[in-house]
Design goal:
The protein is α+β, with helices and mostly antiparallel strands. It has 15 helices and 30 strands. Helix 7 packs across helix 8, helix 8 runs antiparallel to helix 9 and helix 8 packs parallel to helix 10.
Length: 673
């Protein structure tokens, strides 16, 4: 369609309207070939893609920059699996969207947005022995005066910000918010801005266009354009001097020194955020520079075109950039405030082997017998992406073992089975195949499970196993792995969950990985009161492991570097937020030294499927592979974690002992044996 750009005037308009109104199926073929592989653009018979909670098909709740044609510069692809996805994916369309940006919590509904800050895990309805949550019903409500209800949609996003816009026929309100931003930025037209609260308000500073208030012990700065006026008490209504912009800051304290410091930065509106990462294969350093682009909305010697950023723990322990003395409490521990539009973190990639070396004193003939028991058993051809992926992951491990034991016959037979399994998935039209949903810009495997189709959950979990398996095949058969053969489909799987090239917008950039939070999210829609969540951090790491090995083995340095970046940064998040290895993140009242699940609002010592401590802890160990060495970085913590499992189970393990013992071996091999 790009060739039609040369048409001018009404003809170009006609072509654009035709593209927007004509079903994609009428314009393009339904089966897309990728080397020897293929996927379909036709939803397989009897299957379902994205739905709401009632099972109704659902489209992205988007407008603005989402609705441009793909080759226009301002087009942004539909994304999912983010901290703000419940604005875009209205799984529960009649419920508010709760968005945990940290330090802010936002409640978004048809009337506007409620801003809040929870500085501790004190809610009695969720603060139980196995849970902690920083949650609030909010302190400040922002909307348009005289407008009770409006339509809200996601209209733009960048690496760690999002924009929501509320509209009626004659009015518009826009809010931009993001991770680590102590400001929320508003733009309005067609009506006065309205700020209210259902709690007791103390206005402790008011000077024409700016106000300092304290509500529920939380402090806020309200910064309107010069010439704006406000009433002397709540509710606050202002025309904003017809300038149509406003920022609200969460202040660490109610002092004029702090107020004026934040005021200096309040008019630098954040327009874009982008993390530039680099993996140096010579030094193994992973460097990430977090850049914010701002626009100064009001020219004055009193204001600067720089914002403030609150850094998570995994940021500030790995940066040398100077920080202010200001801090916020959050579910991820203390956040520290940086003055400026950029900061850099430095971490070391520890390396990933394709397999563990064959060392140790054991009966190799017995191990070979075990391997050969699996030879000749075909992979199931009717399993879903997750369970099929796990089966392929097991086969990949056996191939390495057979190779090291010198049984080439067993290795080749297992390798052939693995190729058949992958090729079944990589060929459209069979019992196992991939479908590209153009509305959601996502590659879904059918059969599906765990809401990977209806909620777009777990893209990195499911595909990570297939990517790892493909890397194993590539190690022993490089021709199979070329882009002209089956490698092109592997690259597509990587791009689906972790598109590493911003310019290639068929898939969103880094769908599953939250660039600022430093870890992935599993839920596609994030429509939970507690925000988004991720249970198995180790399966997210398995995704990164597979990416690195695939890139390294096939000579694709950009994909290799992507894997090193994801592996290194997510491992740091695992140490801090799932395991709290420094004992600085979990609230003092929380009874556990590990989480099964990280939520936007806090954490849960539990799983979606079991209350057994072996599974709660083990879901963040599996699958154990040569890439699991990151779990052993803190050997004393490994013993602590293991001892808690054994103590709780009454002296020994029962259910997932293989996983638990492998984890233990990273600290104490003799005890594991």
């Amino acid at each position: 369609m790009k060739s039609h750009i040369i048409i001018q005037g009404k003809c170009l308009t006609f072509i654009i309207l035709l593209c927007l109104s004509t079903p994609y199926s009428a314009l393009y073929a339904q089966v897309v070939s990728v080397g020897q592989g293929s996927y379909t653009k036709t939803l397989p018979s009897g299957q379902t893609s994205a739905t709401d909670q009632n099972g109704n098909p659902i489209l992205p709740n988007v407008a603005g920059n989402f609705t441009k044609l793909e080759w226009f510069p301002s087009f942004v692809p539909v994304t999912t699996n983010d901290f703000w996805s419940n604005v875009l994916f209205r799984y529960a369309p009649d419920e508010p969207a709760y968005v945990f940006t940290h330090p802010f919590e936002l409640k978004i509904d048809s009337s506007g947005v409620v801003l809040g800050y929870a500085d501790n895990a004190s809610r009695s309805d969720i603060m139980k022995s196995d849970n902690y949550a920083f949650m609030t019903e909010g302190q400040l409500s922002i909307g348009l005066s005289g407008v009770d209800k409006s339509v809200f949609k996601a209209t733009d996003y960048s690496d760690w910000t999002a924009t929501t816009t509320w509209t009626t026929e004659s009015t518009s309100l826009e809010a931009t918010f993001g991770h680590g931003l102590p400001f929320v930025y508003f733009k309005s037209s067609g009506a006065d801005i309205s700020i209210s609260s259902d709690k007791n308000v103390n206005i402790w500073h008011q000077n024409d266009n700016v106000i300092g208030v304290t509500i529920d012990g939380k402090h806020f700065g309200i910064f309107a354009p010069t010439g704006s006026t406000w009433p002397s008490e709540f509710p606050l209504v202002s025309s904003l001097n017809d300038q149509g912009f406003l920022s609200i800051a969460l202040l660490p304290e109610a002092s004029m020194t702090t107020f004026n410091f934040y005021k200096k930065h309040a008019y630098a509106f954040v327009e874009d955020t982008q993390a530039d990462w680099n993996y140096d294969s010579e030094t193994n350093e992973v460097t990430v520079t977090y850049n914010v682009t701002t626009k100064l909305m009001e020219e004055s010697e009193s204001y600067v075109n720089e914002t403030l950023q609150a850094l998570y723990r995994h940021h500030w322990i790995n940066t040398s950039d100077p920080l202010t003395s200001y801090t916020y409490n959050s579910p991820r521990g203390t956040m520290k405030v940086l003055e400026g539009n950029s900061f850099t973190t430095n971490n070391t990639f520890i390396g990933i082997l394709p397999s563990l070396p064959d060392l140790g004193d054991y009966d190799r003939s017995l191990l070979l017998d075990y391997v050969n028991q699996e030879v000749g058993i075909p992979l199931p051809s009717n399993k879903d992406t997750y369970n099929s992926g796990k089966a392929m992951g097991k086969l990949a491990q056996l191939i390495h073992i057979a190779d090291q034991l010198g049984d080439l016959s067993a290795k080749n037979k297992l390798l052939d089975e693995l190729k058949i399994g992958l090729e079944n998935w990589f060929t459209a039209g069979g019992d196992q195949q991939y479908y590209f949903d153009e509305n959601w810009q996502v590659l879904i495997g059918f059969p599906s499970s765990h809401g990977a189709n209806t909620s777009l959950n777990d893209q990195h979990f499911h595909h990570g196993y297939a990517i790892y398996a493909a890397a194993t095949v590539a190690q022993y058969d490089s021709a199979w792995a070329t882009q002209d053969n089956w490698g092109g489909m592997v690259n597509l799987l990587i791009r689906n969950a972790s598109n590493w090239e911003r310019a290639k917008r068929t898939y969103p950039y880094m769908r599953n990985f939250d660039i600022y939070a430093g870890h992935s999210w599993a839920a596609g829609h994030s429509q939970f009161r507690r925000g988004n969540n991720q249970e198995s951090s180790s399966e997210a790491m398995n995704h990164a492991i597979g990416i690195f090995l695939w890139g390294e083995i096939t000579g694709q340095d950009d994909i290799r570097d992507l894997g090193a970046y994801l592996y290194t940064i997510e491992a740091e998040a695992v140490y801090q937020y799932w395991f709290d290895v420094d004992n600085e993140v979990f609230p003092e009242s929380f009874a556990h030294d590990a989480l099964g699940m990280v939520w936007g609002s806090g954490g849960y010592h539990g799983t979606w499927f079991s209350s057994d401590i072996e599974k709660i802890r083990g879901i963040n160990f599996l699958p154990i592979s040569s890439g699991s060495m990151y779990l052993g970085k803190y050997p004393e913590y490994v013993i602590q974690n293991f001892n808690k499992i054994v103590e709780t189970k009454g002296g020994h393990t029962y259910d997932w002992e293989d996983r638990v013992w492998k984890y233990l071996a990273l600290s104490d091999a003799d005890l594991a044996i």
